[in-house]
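Need residues for this backbone.
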């Protein structure tokens, strides 16, 4: 087996602390995630995760929260859940040196709470960035109410990791199909579109955004967004360097985006330095994406960049591990 210390950096790994997960089961009893058993999700621990990482030559995993996150319309609960999850994540980083990092969770609908949690997570817990969901109560991330949060993240030159979640307006449109099927990539696209057309990307040039699952449907529809959005004087005024310019600054991960057609789309749209390895563990076994990437013809230097080097450039702290 390859030396895991020289292995992949997994930018898309979910931390599932047991206390948080127990609460999630109570709050979201009807929520179903395909691809992983309830038992596997409830049994996640840092030590167990490292066993799997070693089996797949993953040197370090950057933990983040998954949908449905911490925002359920209750400010006090969101603040408590954010703090609990972030401190559990920081404990994993401390207890297993060199094996983990994390994107701290915050709840943008609670502006003051989110700003305080960002300060605590970055300054005290030393998080590697901030993790957000693609919408909150149906509001995409470009909504004006979230502007103070993004202004602070831009001031801090923060890495922001965005994971999709279901949009309330799309629930049950195709009966029996879990939202992970098509709604997750489409909601990722919706939130990216809102961020660019409303001018958040241009106003926040120092945020490095990572969008999971290959940026959703962005590679396929970016040219269409640029063409249609470019007809609106307001949208073009929001993007003095151009809509396409802002979209190509984004980063993505390869989780659920590593099939041959998807990789061809990613490589044709994103700069090669902006594509990062992601597994989506424990929801998806790492072997799925690793095997698909192994079958795709990549030059050795590009394969190393996707597996490891691009993450090191984006998160320089990892170089010292």
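Answer:
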């Amino acid at each position: 087996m390859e030396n895991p210390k020289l292995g992949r950096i997994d930018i898309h790994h979910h931390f599932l602390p047991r206390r948080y997960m127990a609460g999630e089961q109570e709050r979201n009893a009807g929520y179903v995630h395909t691809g992983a058993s309830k038992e596997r999700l409830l049994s996640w621990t840092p030590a167990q995760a490292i066993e799997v990482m070693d089996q797949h030559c993953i040197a370090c995993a950057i933990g983040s929260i998954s949908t449905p996150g911490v925002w359920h319309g209750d400010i006090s609960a969101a603040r408590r859940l954010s703090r609990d999850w972030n401190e559990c994540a920081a404990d994993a980083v401390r207890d297993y040196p060199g094996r983990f990092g994390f994107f701290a969770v915050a709840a943008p609908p609670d502006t003051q709470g989110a700003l305080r949690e960002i300060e605590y997570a970055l300054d005290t817990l030393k998080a590697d960035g901030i993790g957000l969901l693609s919408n909150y109560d149906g509001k995409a991330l470009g909504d004006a109410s979230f502007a103070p949060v993004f202004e602070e993240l831009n001031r801090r030159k923060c890495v922001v990791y965005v994971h999709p979640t279901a949009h309330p307006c799309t629930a049950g449109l195709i009966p029996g199909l879990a939202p992970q099927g098509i709604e997750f990539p489409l909601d990722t696209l919706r939130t990216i579109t809102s961020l660019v057309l409303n001018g958040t990307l241009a106003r926040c040039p120092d945020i490095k955004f990572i969008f999971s699952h290959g940026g959703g449907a962005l590679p396929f529809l970016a040219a269409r967004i640029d063409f249609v959005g470019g007809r609106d004087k307001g949208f073009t005024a929001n993007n003095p360097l151009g809509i396409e310019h802002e979209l190509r600054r984004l980063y993505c991960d390869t989780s659920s985006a590593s099939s041959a057609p998807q990789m061809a789309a990613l490589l044709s749209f994103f700069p090669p330095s902006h594509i990062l390895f992601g597994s989506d563990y424990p929801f998806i076994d790492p072997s799925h994406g690793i095997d698909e990437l192994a079958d795709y013809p990549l030059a050795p230097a590009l394969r190393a960049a996707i597996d490891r080097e691009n993450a090191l450039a984006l998160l320089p702290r990892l170089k010292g591990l």
